[in-house]
Amino acid sequence: MSLREMFLPNIDSIFMQTDEFATEREFRISDGQGGFTVFVAPVVWDKDAVRQQPLVTIHGVFMGDVRCYIAHKYLPRAPVAGEIVYSPANQPWEVLDCTDAEGLYELSLSASRSQPTQYGRN
Q: Are 21 and 15 in contact (CB under 8 A)?
């Protein structure tokens, strides 16, 4: 058994448990048909992780305001850069990067100013 296989069960049993690292957050995402889907999911919402990893390719500027880890089963597809997700359901966050990490999406999110004319266009 590889090291990766040994740690996979720990993602759901420890990392994504609300009594360990995760918190329950409300999300609103585009349903692809002009509407929205609202749901609550356990996520790891980490503001400190972003501060610890400046990206040289972005001229040393921190990539986003928060890193969010969410299980694949909560999203119909991987979010793409430039897409807006809402969490809680009325707070917009721009997706800067999405990485597929062992059954989780690792999202780098940037707090986005309210843009009411843009709602529903992502």
A: yes
